[in-house]
Amino acid sequence: MFQKILIANRGEIACRVIKTARKMGIKTVAVYSDADRNALHVSMADEAGHIGPAPANQSYIVIDKIMDAIAKTGAQAVHPGYGFLSENMNFAAALEKAGVVFVGPPSPAIEAMGDKITSKKIAQEAGVSTVPGYMGLIADADEAVKISGQIGYPVMIKASAGGGGKGMRIAWNDQEAREGFQSSKNEAAASFGDDRIFIEKFVTQPRHIEIQVLADKHGNCVYLHERECSIQRRNQKVIEEAPSPFLDEATRKAMGEQACALAKAVGYTSAGTVEFIVDGNRNFYFLEMNTRLQVEHPVTELITGVDLVEQMIRVANGEPLPFKQEDLKINGWAMESRLYAEDPYRNFLPSIGRLTRYRPPVEGTTERGGIVRNDTGVYEGGEISMYYDPMIAKLCTWAPTRAEAINEMRLALDTFEVEGIGHNLPFVGAVMDHPRFQSGNITTAFIAEEYPEGFQGATLGGDILAQVAASAAAMNRVAEIRRTKVSGTMDNHERRVGDDWVVTLQGVEHVVKIAADPAGSTVSFADGSTRRITSDWTPGQPSARVMVDGTPLVMKVGKISGGFRLRLRGADLKVHVRTPRQAALAKLMLEKLPPDTSKFLLCPMPGLVTKIMVEVGDEVQEGQALATVEAMKMENILKAERKGVVKAVKASAGASLKVDEVIMEFE
């Protein structure tokens, strides 16, 4: 077995590989850029080497710098993680030439399947059904528009070397094809050092289901069942699960056998994933093969009990697979939520900055018999950099059934505390509560269809709203009792805590009466219903775990005047708990309106202005491109929301702006 492995990656996947290597008794070497000097993966590894400036194209994807780090540390093998150089055949070939083992497939297999254009040609030649498209190289935007018209809109514009949603655009007309081609090309060059683009038909209403395969150097290949990855936003997976709620055993077997046949056809070894789109009749079509470990691999590990990183290392060491296909059963159900540094209330735009609070849920077996797992590469006090992928963590849960796995995820998400940056915890929490998601009736269009105007927070249903109201009333009573015990109060001014309260939240008023005892409180509503509340929450704690009639309810808690800010299940609620007299007076108060920013184009995220497309005096039309802002390797084109005339341009290309800084003003 190897004595030392270098991990040519960063963030959560580097930490993930280090954990398995440590379990196997293998020493690890981390590499880091200027931006990652204090990163978690650096402190976790046994050794670490600096490889250059912050931009990935000057550090993590520079083969010579990785090779130099290998030479200096004497690493015998390299695990590439995902992204960066993980599917770069030149990197695998350089390692082979240097006598260093690549913990992944051989370079010819990467060349054959890692390139999307080549892989589709091979699949077509092998008789595999593929999505219609143009597999040749596309010279410029004019040719992209011509090809798109021939295929028929909508089309998907993709980077040949792409992955993780980078370098991908959907175009519904010629203008979007022209813009999408250039943006995809720019993102591909910045992210992968390869700006080749291809175009294929965008199939509407598909499911994205992938098969995990594992092959050794002795001719053995198995599939570890499937992952459902249909919950996507801008082609970026957000929630994954295993198995799929849609597949039957016959389709699963057919997809798995086809995936293994494809892997064997190219001499594949190590872990890999064959991706398919599946229509409503369970017809499946080959999309691509990812010749690396997938981001969402933990859900497969949770339902099979197989450590994929360990098997990758053992296969690289020449060992045969320790199991056969018939040994790989599906045990229970697993969910994964990707926690991203992006603000769902600002159309999911990137958010960077310091994690002033980062408290994930406790990992391990829960009191209900489920499992919580959190793969991460950050820590409280660390920074989310603008230079890399905005992923903070991958929160995973397991339970015997899908409904139970969803419930475990719901509670884990509500327990997860992240402050200091915008993040998508509220959004994934809302998805877990969505009836359509819970039914399993999902497609890759789920987010676009269910949140067409973006995400503005979830609206809680009647029963859960009553639970929150009862909890807030009980929590307020605890806070009131504490306030009565403040020392130094005036004589003859004893503060009494009453039993009658009015709880207002989400525009609904609940008149309640509290009957407290040493074990908890019983909250009675005007309709005669009651809720029994028990909790050890004390004022000042940022999170409250409340038992409502014996069922756990977890909420993030903040103090506001006259009540609480409570966050749970994707909802962000201002909850006021008042005496009946206070509630009557509150109705007479005027509501403060937010400032009018309709005449300004504001920078929606911290980023770099790369282009200003209009000048002072220009008349702009609705939907016209005004400026381009780059953040976290993504180009964001800002467009006019309405017709107007440019009065002033406040920013220029090359300027680094904060959130809500003014880019231009309109008359």
Explain the layout of strands and helices:
Blueprint: E1 4-7, H1 11-23, E2 27-32, H2 40-44, E3 47-50, H3 63-73, E4 77-79, H4 89-98, E5 101-102, H5 107-113, H6 116-125, E6 133-134, H7 141-151, E7 155-163, E8 166-171, H8 174-192, E9 197-201, E10 207-215, E11 221-233, E12 236-242, H9 249-265, E13 270-278, E14 284-290, H10 297-304, H11 308-316, E15 333-340, E16 342-343, E17 349-350, E18 353-354, E19 357-359, E20 364-365, E21 371-376, E22 383-384, E23 391-399, H12 402-415, E24 417-419, H13 425-433, H14 435-439, H15 446-450, H16 462-484, E25 500-505, E26 508-517, E27 520-525, E28 530-535, E29 543-548, E30 551-560, E31 563-568, E32 571-578, H17 580-586, E33 600-602, E34 607-612, E35 619-620, E36 625-631, E37 634-639, E38 644-649, E39 656-657, E40 662-666
Parallel strand pairs: 1-2, 1-4, 2-3, 4-5
Antiparallel strand pairs: 6-9, 7-8, 7-9, 10-11, 10-13, 11-12, 12-15, 13-14, 15-23, 16-17, 18-22, 19-24, 20-21, 21-23, 25-26, 25-32, 26-27, 27-28, 28-29, 29-30, 30-31, 31-32, 33-40, 34-36, 34-39, 35-38, 36-37, 38-40
Describe this structure in words.
- With 667 residues, the protein is an alpha+beta fold.
- The chain has a 9-stranded antiparallel sheet.
- A hairpin with a 2-residue loop joins strand 25 (500-505) and strand 26 (508-517).
- Helix 4 runs antiparallel to helix 5 (107-113), helix 7 (141-151) crosses helix 8 and helix 12 (402-415) runs antiparallel to helix 13 (425-433).
- The longest helix has 23 residues, at 462-484.
- The protein is globular and about 90 Å long.
- The chain starts with a strand and ends with a strand.
